[in-house]
Amino acid sequence: MALADPVVGSKSFAAVAINCAAKAGEWIKTKLGNYQQLDLKMSSHDLVTEVDKGSERLIRGLIGTHFPNHSFLGEEGVEPGPEASAKALEDVREAEYLWIVDPIDGTTNFVHGFPFFVVSIALAHRGEVILGVIYDPSKDELFIAEKGKGAYVHGKPIEVSKEDTLQSSLVATGFPAEQRYALPLNMKGIQHLAPKVRNIRSAGSAALHLAYVAAGRLSGFWEIGLNSWDLAAGALLIQESGGRVTDTEGAEYHLGVRNVVASNGRIHDDLIKELREAADNPS
Ligand code: IPD
Ligand code: CA
Ligand code: CA
C-alpha cells in the first residue's frame, strides 16, 4: 500500500491509534489505586502491574484486528534489560509497518496514584516514525503527530517554546531504572545542568515529558538508557512541532536511540555541550 493512502478498511492509522490510546487510557484510569499485582522487573525501581500487561493486550488486540499484517513491539512483550530491548527492536526494525507501544509510561506514578502517566503509541514505516499518539488520561489530553502534518493537542496545533538560552530554560529528565550505567550518568547531567538552567523537573514519564516539549511547556528533555517505546511517539511530536531530537552525541533521532536529547531546537547544541562536559567529568 502507498504511504500516501494509509487506510485499511474504513479506519486510518491515526484513527486506530487514537482509539487504542483512548480506550486503554480510560481503562487504566479505572484501575488507579486498584491494581492487584505489583512485580519488579530489572530492579526494585522497575515496576510492572497486571494493568500494564492488560493495556498492552488491549492495544495489541485492537491493532491486530485492523492491521493483521503489521508488526508489533510492546514493552511488556520484551524481557527486561537493555540488551533484550535492543535485540527485540533489531528483529522488527525494518518491518513495513511496525507499531511501537508503551502501554503505561510512568508505571511508578500509576502505582502511587501520582497523575502523570500515559499510553504511548507510534507507527513506523520501514524504520521511520510516521505517527505518534500520547494520551494522558488524568488530564484527558491527547497529543498526536503525523509525519509532515504537524502536531496537535485536542485538534489545536502545538509548537515548541521560544527560549534560546539554557538560563531561561525549564528542562526535564528522569531517574533511569538501570543503576550501573544510566542512573549515574544521568545524575552527572543533573548536577552539572542544575546551576545553568532555570530549573529541572522529573515527573516520571519520559513520553509525557517529550509531549510537553512539543507543546512548549518544557524547553528540553534528556535521559540516558530509554527504549524505543518510551521515545518513538514523543520524538515525532517534537519534530512536527518545530523542535529537535538527537542522541547525546548529536546524531539525529532514529528508533535505536537510547540516550536522548530533545528540545525546542534553540537550546539543543548548548544542552548537548553541557551534557558532554558532565559525562567527561571524572567525579
Ligand atoms: C519509565 C518512565 C520514567 C523513566 C524511565 C522509564 P515505565 O518508563 O518513562 O520516566 O525515567 O527510564 O523506564 O517503566 O514507566 O514505562
Ligand atoms: Ca516507559
Ligand atoms: Ca511502561
UniProtKB/TrEMBL annotation:
PROSITE patterns on file: IMP_1, IMP_2
Binding site for Mg(2+): 75, 102, 104-105, 230
A GO molecular-function annotation: inositol monophosphate 1-phosphatase activity
Family: Belongs to the inositol monophosphatase superfamily.
Protein name: Inositol-1-monophosphatase
Keywords noted in UniProt: Hydrolase, Magnesium, Metal-binding
Biological process terms in GO annotation: inositol metabolic process; phosphatidylinositol phosphate biosynthetic process; signal transduction
EC category name: hydrolase
E.C. number: 3.1.3.25
Pfam families noted in UniProt: Inositol_P
Required cofactor(s): Mg(2+)
Reaction catalysed by this enzyme: a myo-inositol phosphate + H2O = myo-inositol + phosphate
UniProt xrefs under PANTHER family: INOSITOL MONOPHOSPHATASE, INOSITOL-1-MONOPHOSPHATASE-RELATED
InterPro entries recorded: IMPase, Inositol_monoP_metal-BS, Inositol_monophosphatase-like, Inositol_monophosphatase_CS, Inositol_monophosphatase_SuhB
UniProt keyword DNA repair, yes or no: no
